[in-house]
Amino acid sequence: MSVWRLELRDSFHKMGEISVLPGFLHLVSLGCLHKGQKIGFLFFVREVKRESSVSFDISKPEATASVKRKRVKRELELNGEHHKKQFGVVPDIEDFRYEKAKTLTASSKATASSVKVEKKVRVSSVIKVGAPDNWEAVLGGIKSMRLSGEAPVDTKGCEKAGSLLPPKERRFAVLISTMMSSQTKDEVTHAAVERLSENGLLDPDAIVRTDETTLANLIKPVGFYQRKAQFIKEASKICLERFGGDIPDSLNELLALRGVGPKMAHLVMSIAWKNTQGICVDTHVHRISNRLGWVFREGTKQKTTTPEQTRISLEKWLPKDEWEPINPLLVGFGQTICTPLRPKCDNCGINNLCPSAFKESSSPNPKQKKTRSP
């Protein structure tokens, strides 16, 4: 096969000669067309030598090639793929590595971008819950059903404790009554308060001087009466030492008392200090709010699972002037109609608005006809 012998020149000097097979001549020509002909040509000759063992001779071998390769990389960085396609420069292995790394980087960025987009979609898809439909009609209906005042909370709730006492003594009675009320019916709590009053123990100083066993026997059978006797003695001592015999007047200080949780603290602030800072959510308020579809866990359409979740959800949409009355209102409704077991949906005036109406066993008689309010 014939071999073409080519002479390398720049504008002024002969730089060397090469031997090229005819089939590669057009590539050499393409490599010499642009301004940097030596880059393309030197690069090409090295490839020809490697593939076809054609010898070549040039005046500036390795040093020039090394410098030119770096320049190629810089030009590739600046001009990208378009530059190579335009001038037909065959990439070196270093350029392959560079392009591969750049592709991987771009791919990683694209993946990260898609992840960011996905996260944005997830954030934007979080459910924002506003005031429930017909809540005013539902609340009005419950208020109408509660006008009779027949529920235990209406006559024996914590707000009735020490009602005839001076303000300071009444506040202490409200605190003690509230601390005993958890896991206990209003009637039982009220009776325990009456026994303490009869023994002169609605006073912090008197409680501190009374032994814990005597106190526990007086408040029995309230739920967990022994633990509550201990907490009541501790709270009485704090009231004497830090508040001059009065009770704490802030939510945080009330919560610092052992045996006082968020429900109790909000109730005491509302009743004793007339300072409503949040909704008091007990088991009745928690249950009824979920049955009515009034509350949801944060960012979801799922029911709340704790009274504290219910409080947070209610406070997001219920007008603040309803925060104080909502507790005795729903407690009494839960004691008389919307009971924990077998709610009396047939007797409920809002069963046409309640999403849970007749979905639980509402009557011990399964054959009783279910009738919704018009």
From TrEMBL:
Reaction catalysis annotation: 2'-deoxyribonucleotide-(2'-deoxyribose 5'-phosphate)-2'-deoxyribonucleotide-DNA = a 3'-end 2'-deoxyribonucleotide-(2,3-dehydro-2,3-deoxyribose 5'-phosphate)-DNA + a 5'-end 5'-phospho-2'-deoxyribonucleoside-DNA + H(+)
Domain HhH-GPD: 180-336
One CC-aspect GO term: nucleus
Subcellular location per the Swiss-Prot or TrEMBL entry: Plastid, Chloroplast stroma, Chloroplast nucleoid
Alphabetic keyword roster: 4Fe-4S, DNA damage, DNA repair, Glycosidase, Hydrolase, Iron, Iron-sulfur, Lyase, Metal-binding, Transit peptide
Signal peptide: none
Main location: plastid
Enzyme Commission identifier(s): 3.2.2.-, 4.2.99.18
Pfam family, one: HHH
Listed cofactors: [4Fe-4S] cluster
Keyword Transit peptide attributed: yes
Any one GO molecular-function label of the UniProt entry: DNA-(apurinic or apyrimidinic site) endonuclease activity
Gene Ontology annotations of biological process type: base-excision repair, AP site formation; nucleotide-excision repair
Gene3D superfamilies linked to this entry: Helix-hairpin-Helix base-excision DNA repair enzymes (C-terminal), Hypothetical protein, domain 2
Family: Belongs to the Nth/MutY family.
PANTHER family linked to this entry: ENDONUCLEASE III-LIKE PROTEIN 1
Function: Bifunctional DNA N-glycosylase with associated apurinic/apyrimidinic (AP) lyase function that catalyzes the first step in base excision repair (BER), the primary repair pathway for the repair of oxidative DNA damage. The DNA N-glycosylase activity releases the damaged DNA base from DNA by cleaving the N-glycosidic bond, leaving an AP site. The AP lyase activity cleaves the phosphodiester bond 3' to the AP site by a beta-elimination. Primarily recognizes and repairs oxidative base damage of pyrimidines.
Protein name: Endonuclease III homolog
Lineage: Eukaryota, Viridiplantae, Streptophyta, Embryophyta, Tracheophyta
Gene behind this protein: NTH1
